């Protein structure tokens, strides 16, 4: 119960911001789509496509960081998609605003707040991973790298301190973002050393 309460107090405000900002941005996009000939369900589809594309691109950008995927050029595909989605959302928000400086500022607020909320949620979803330590070819051994074992031990100790129970293989796999087999190997190593 304490864990849920702590999570709600920590993440709740960001989720509320994301929901409210997303609804405002969604409404502006839908209204702009309707005014420009996309009526009925199609205006809703346009709004959903733009907002969800931003969410997916932000998540994909984080996934690239987690997996160490390198971009091919000055800008990655997820960043390009995110930038395009933000530009479309912002354009629709500004289209619905009064043509004054304050109208544009208030019109842009839902798109900006939605982007900020999504980036905060994605930032929280990213767990730092230790950099692998290169091992000379002639010293390679079977099993997980010592740095990864140390990091897994810290995660397991933190889990035990927080929950009062040993960490499971699934929980370790999720926290580290590793395969089932590597999580099993790490858990076995932690329990035998």
Structure characterization notes:
InterPro entries: DUF2637 (IPR021235). Keywords: Membrane, Transmembrane, Transmembrane helix. Pfam families: DUF2637. The protein is an all-alpha fold. It has 2 domains: about 10-125, no CATH class; about 140-190, Orthogonal Bundle (Arc Repressor Mutant, subunit A), CATH 1.10.10. The protein is about 75% helix and about 0% strand. It has 7 helices and no strands. It has helices at about 1-35, 40-65, 75-95, 100-125, 145-165, 170-175, 180-190. It starts with a helix and ends with a helix.
Keywords summarizing the entry:
mainly alpha, transmembrane, membrane, 193 residues, Arc Repressor Mutant, subunit A, DUF2637, transmembrane helix, 7 helices, Peptidoglycan/LPS O-acetylase OafA/YrhL
Topology pattern, helix = H, strand = E: HHHHHHH
Large-scale geometry = elongated
Count up the domains. Answer: 2
In round numbers, the mean pLDDT is: 81
User: Helicity range of the residues?
Assistant: over 70%
Biggest beta-sheet profile? none
The amount of beta strand, in percent, is under 5%
How would you classify the helix and strand content by structural class? mainly alpha
Count of helix runs = 7
**Stretches with pLDDT under 50, minimum 5 residues:** none
Intertermini distance: 33 Å
Give the tally of β-strands. 0
| Radius of gyration of CA atoms, rounded to a whole number | 22 Å
């Amino acid at each position: 119960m304490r864990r849920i309460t702590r999570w709600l107090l920590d993440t709740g405000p960001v989720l509320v911001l994301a929901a409210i900002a997303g609804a405002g941005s969604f409404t502006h996009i839908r209204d702009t789509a309707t005014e420009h000939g996309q009526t009925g369900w199609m205006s809703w589809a346009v709004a959903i496509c733009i907002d969800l594309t931003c969410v997916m691109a932000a998540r994909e950008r984080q996934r690239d960081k987690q997996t160490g995927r390198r971009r091919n050029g000055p800008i990655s595909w997820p960043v390009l998609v995110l930038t395009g989605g933000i530009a479309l959302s912002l354009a629709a928000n500004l289209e619905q605003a009064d043509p004054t400086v304050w109208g544009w500022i208030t019109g842009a607020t839902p798109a900006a707040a939605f982007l900020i909320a999504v980036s905060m949620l994605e930032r929280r979803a990213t767990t730092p991973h230790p950099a692998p330590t290169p091992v000379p070819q002639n010293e390679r051994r079977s099993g997980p790298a010592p740095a990864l074992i140390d990091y897994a031990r810290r995660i397991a100790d933190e889990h035990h301190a927080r929950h009062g129970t040993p960490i499971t293989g699934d929980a370790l796999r999720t926290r580290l973002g590793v395969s089932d087999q590597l999580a099993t190997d790490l858990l076995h190593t932690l329990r035998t050393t």
